[in-house]
Amino acid sequence: MSLGLTSLHPLFVAEASGVELRSCHDPDDLAAIRRGMDEHAVLVFRDQHLSHQEQLAFAERFDGRIHRATSAAAVAKNRHGDEGLTDIGNVGDDGQVMASQDRRRMNNLANRLWHTDASFVEPCGRYSLLAAKVVPAEGADTEYADMRAAYDSLDADLRRRVEGQRAFHSIVHSRSTLGFEFSDAERQRLPGAVQPLVRTIPGSGRKALYLASHIAHLVDWPVPESRLLLLELIEHATRAQFVYRHKWREGDVVIWDNRCTMHRGTRFEDTTQRRELVRTTTLDLPRAIA
Q1: CATH code of residue 261
Q2: What integer pLDDT is reported at residue 78 of this predicted model?
Q3: E strands, 109-249, where?
Q4: Whole-number Å distance between alpha carbons of 189 and 172
Q5: Which pLDDT score is estimated for 139?
Q6: CA distance 181 to 172
């Protein structure tokens, strides 16, 4: 493999070339992709057209253990047959676009909030791989924000306020902001987790804000004050200079580091236009592979 990387944004994101993910097994090749992730945080791979099993197999080779305790798993049975394949699409079990009041659609609408995947579990998510199967002609893009650059640009006072803080992440909280309610049984499957507000990324040594709409409050602050600070941080971190917007093509696979980015889907006519993407997220555990 001869990995080539072409920058797509001044701060982060690169398009990879010379790589076929389904046949990428060599430890040196996998390590080269990880180094690209350390530098760019988001990598775009075109024309991959992975099967579900190829996607799962690559994720396991690349980073190990896969996250399966998702909110979608709590709400409905996975139509792909494996909870490691999170359905980001708007298609129901019957193969048709979901109706506006379908509970799975209502849950997925929260993907339009700025978030990071699997911050609400421990261990949290590390890498996400999102594969595009069917995309509308217009809209339905994904935006990514660089939390390393956002941290670097904090003024001294704000940096002092965030250092050492801990935040409670709950997907129940983020969904509730849009009026979605989980049952008691579903809530028990999604208890949430406490995470640092600032973390150092081992591969790059850079500090990053660890933000998400999943954050309900800071552990050691009153709820009103902590939510005001979080709103201020998210507003800062999603300024235009920190954001890359990806326009999907069928066959794309985008891999990003959840520890130092946020992302969100953009609006499209999701009750009339078909969109099928499948995500696999790995957990931030010591890697037992080369």
Answers
A1: 3.60.130.10
A2: 86
A3: 125-134, 142-146, 166-169, 193-196, 198-200, 207-209, 215-218, 243-246
A4: 10
A5: 87
A6: 8
Look at residue 63 in the predicted model and tell me its pLDDT. 97
Could you tell me where the DSSP H helices lie in the chain? 27-40, 52-63, 71-75, 103-108, 147-152, 156-162, 171-176, 184-189, 223-237
- Domains in the chain: how many in total? 1
Domain that holds residue 276: 4-282
CB-CB neighbours of 103 under 10 Å: 12
Is residue 231 included in any domain, yes or no?
yes
In a domain, 288, yes or no: no
Helix (H) or strand (E) holding 87: strand 86-87
The rounded distance, in Å, linking the Cα atoms of 206 and 67 is: 25
What pLDDT, on the 0 to 100 scale, is given for residue 288? 64
With 70 as the cut, is the pLDDT of residue 256 above it? yes
Residue written as token pair 């099967």: 51
Give the angle subtended at the CA of 288 by the CAs of 283 and 290, to the nearest 5°.
110
Cα-only R_g, the chain: 18
